[in-house]
Design brief:
By secondary structure, the protein is of the alpha/beta class. It is built from 20 helices and 15 strands.
């Protein structure tokens, strides 16, 4: 799997452990001992911890971290970092939750996607990094990722990457059929109709139902279906933002203007290469995936700003992204924090960028070297200029459920039915809302 392919995958089965039950327990570290309380910010001396050395275990599936670990250990020879791939996405979360329940085998650091982070934070499984001065990093990251690692007044991770959205399109296909690059969703729908009429085998994009993509569109449209205040949760997919999305996307579904090709399948990659799938509205981590998985598209693809719900608008959303978090059970929190700060704030960021990651740090996003980089795959376009601009335009205030992993796992059982003609998208969202409310109540949340 590529560095960033994970971001578009819809996670599978729900975590089996009740979050509220988890919140009441306390786990030990690898040795099974109880974790000491995190020291206060004034008492923390990261340099002293690094000089003293020790061993930490990091659970992460992100490949660029391998070089980061190597470089970190070279700089700090007294530190040993055990980098473990405990699975991707939900597989790791399940293993992590099982370790927390057992009270042993818990890593010091865990790689957690933004939508899953609130679940572990509410369960009191993650250390509040304000104890190490992480709150002073405000301004270091773009708003979307920085907001995603904060909940309940705490900071529960260091952003590692981000996924501000943009329109990736096949210029060769657009030129062939004289289609203008759409600036609004209305123009996007018109382009979909024109393209499919000109070539019945070609589609503007593929979509068979994806929770992350749908919520990202609602986010961009100003929707705020999730309201979260500790264990009090509101879920409402009838707001104006959600209705904008369903009204627009239903046209594409009803008129069969979407390729019925599952994302990340062999057929999907083939369609992106042969021009039968002409666009993707997706996160900024996509260039590396196109370069490695769609070699036939080299020179054909370009990147443009995300289509807007209102003409002249400048609103985007995040699609994917992840953080590194220190586990509450860690007995070496200072050293663990020193590592994630190195990886997400300091030298490790450039190491990961060199390997194709997309940053969450404003300094890197705004640097001339980053913005002016030319991408041969995209016809020497300076793609990062578009992507960095998108990162600065992410609509603030979005929240994920403290059981978003479960909610995403039932998306295709509810909203997914709209893509097979069994329901409308709005009805599907209502069914998703109802099922999520039911689950939340069963887990002990106060849900409205």
């Amino acid at each position: 799997m590529t560095t960033t392919r994970r971001h578009a995958l819809l996670l599978g089965a729900a975590l089996s452990v009740s979050l509220l039950a988890t919140a009441c327990g306390s786990g030990g570290g690898d040795g099974g001992t109880s974790a000491a309380p995190a020291p206060s910010a004034s008492a923390v001396d990261l340099e002293a911890a690094l000089n003293a050395g020790g061993t930490i275990t990091v659970w992460a599936w992100e490949p660029t971290l391998k070089q980061v670990v190597t470089d970190f250990q070279t700089k700090y020879p007294k530190v040993k970092v055990n980098l473990v791939n405990a699975g991707t996405g939900n597989d790791q979360y399940t293993a992590l939750q099982n370790a927390i329940k057992a009270g042993s085998g818990i890593p010091d650091v865990a790689h957690i996607e933004y939508f899953a982070l609130p679940q572990f934070a509410l369960g009191k499984s993650l250390a509040d990094l304000k104890a190490f001065g992480a709150d002073k990093l405000d301004g270091t990251f773009t708003p979307g990722p920085w907001g995603s690692v904060q909940t309940g007044g705490g900071v529960y991770g260091i952003p590692m990457d981000s996924g501000p959205m943009a329109l990736f399109y096949n210029k060769e296909v657009f030129d062939k059929h004289k289609i203008e690059v759409p600036k609004t969703w209305e123009e996007y729908i018109a382009a979909a109709k024109k393209l499919h009429a000109a070539d019945p085998k070609a589609y503007i994009t593929s979509d068979t139902g994806d929770a992350g993509f749908t919520t990202s569109l609602i986010w961009q449209a100003g929707g705020k279906p999730y309201q979260v205040d500790g264990t009090k949760v509101g879920i409402n997919f009838a707001d104006a933002g959600a209705q904008k999305v369903t009204a627009a996307w239903q046209q594409l579904v009803s008129e069969k203007l979407l390729a019925p090709t599952p994302g990340w399948s062999d057929a999907w990659f083939k369609g992106l290469g042969d021009g039968t799938i002409a666009t993707l509205v997706i996160g900024a981590w996509m260039p590396a995936n196109l370069e490695s998985g769609v070699k036939a598209g080299k020179g054909k693809w370009r990147v443009a700003p995300m289509p807007q719900w209102e003409a002249g608008g400048k609103a985007t959303a995040e699609n994917g992204g992840s953080a590194l978090s220190v586990m509450e059970a860690s007995t070496n929190k200072a050293l663990a924090y020193a590592f994630i700060k190195y990886a997400g704030v300091d030298e490790g960021v450039q190491t990961r960028l060199d390997a194709g990651a997309f940053p969450a740090t404003t300094a890197h996003l705004n640097s001339a070297d980053f913005k002016d980089k030319k991408f041969p795959y995209f016809g020497d376009q300076q793609v990062n200029q578009v992507l960095a601009e998108s990162a600065s335009q992410v609509v603030p205030g979005w929240k994920y459920l403290p059981f978003q992993v479960y909610a995403n796992s039932i998306f295709n059982d509810t909203v997914g039915k709209a893509y097979t003609g069994e329901a409308t998208l709005q009805d599907g969202l209502k069914a998703w809302q109802d099922a999520s409310i039911k689950y939340g109540q069963e887990q002990g949340f106060s849900v409205q």
